[in-house]
Amino acid sequence: MTQPSMPVLESVTRTWPDLEAAHERATDAGAALLRSRTELLSVLTRLATYASARDELLRSLRAVAGAPWELARTGVPQLSRISVVLPQHSALYSYVRDCLVPALYCDEVVVRPTPRIRETACAVHQIISRGLDPQLASRIRFTDAAESDFMPVCAESDAVVHTGSVEAGNRLMTGIGDAPLFLFSGPAPNPLIVGPRTEPAAACRTVLRARLYNSGQDRRCPDVLFVHRLRLNALVEQLRAELSVLTVGARGWPDAVLTALAYGEAVEGAARFLAAHTDRLVTGGGTDPERMQIEPSLLVFDEDPGFHPPALAGPLFCVVPYEDPELLREWARNPRELERGMYASVLGEPRLTGRTLGTAVVLRDGTPFDVEDGNQPCGGYGVHASGVRREGVLLGRPLLLSREAAQQRSVITGPLR
Length: 417
Prior knowledge:
It is a single chain. By secondary structure, the chain is an alpha/beta fold. The chain has two domains: 9-186 and 384-409, Aldehyde Dehydrogenase, Chain A, domain 1; 192-371, Aldehyde Dehydrogenase, Chain A, domain 2, CATH 3.40.309. The chain is 39% helix and 18% strand. The chain has 15 helices and 17 strands. It has an eight-stranded mixed β-sheet. The chain has a seven-stranded mixed β-sheet with strand order 3-2-1-4-5-16-17, with helices on both faces. A hairpin with a 2-residue loop joins β16 and β17. It is globular, with a radius of gyration of 22 Å. The N and C termini lie close together (12 Å). 47% of the residues are buried. It comes from Streptomyces oryzae. Pfam families: Aldedh. Residues 26-332 form the Aldehyde dehydrogenase domain. Keywords: Oxidoreductase.
């Protein structure tokens, strides 16, 4: 094992991850993912479309490959324990980002999947752990403890990572006290803005790709589309035409764009939203709770900054026209949107010049799926979408566990590698 090239003051009393071992273990983990890819895709398509499961696999490979670089860049110290609540979607990518990569610098990673994803997440862990370095695999421990029993475990952790609803996150954060570092990722509307300088066909492809990721069941999907009036009619007509010919099939079909939704609650929420806005429907609107399906639905609302949709799941396209970008700024300044700002995708709107829209990070000519990197801070500045609590104060900012842990415990940088 190579020694740090330049020990600094804190190295005398601190323990640092072994980067040489991290390189070897990350390489083994990547190989395990590749060897098990067929088995993993079979498990993931219990809840996800084949296309999104395959994308998860590739994103996970990239996160594992970049893990040693992440550790060296952030200077994260060796941690004793982190506790993780896995979300109900993205079983593999969430496992790799929140459990496997942290296991490279943490002695124990205690994982509590949400009930809906438990079976899939446990299967993913079992498949991958077979190919991991035994010491690394032993650091990741799944628990089926109830939320109340999990709280004491979290309270004794260096850090807690929670991805899920605002209510569940607040309940856990309050119940464990102020001592642990707490990272919280919740739902966000992620508006997609189609400006006057956007070519409608290109905008339509971007909208479809972003909204239909895993049949619309991802927290990064855009829940609202702001479309400039110069492009409104053309985009609506193109979307109407495209939605009528989407491939519907089983989750395991490689070419299926739309599948049954994974959870009854998602179907019920979409059905309630459609029933409340039948006068806005351009096409679609059908629901089949028994088959867990939502018809691709296009709705056009008034030019109004007061439209604040709930977190939506399914192939729902909510269009709000605009002319003056001040409407977008007014919408983003609403207290609710300030709390849940994550991303704002901006296509062909040069009048939006800032790096943020409210608390949402502006992505120019791209979507969250284009830019998110598992080894870099992700998210925006809304405290309910991307929040970190340290010393009792909740702050909103893009999150990366290793960076937050390094800042939480660092007085001076660790060894140079």
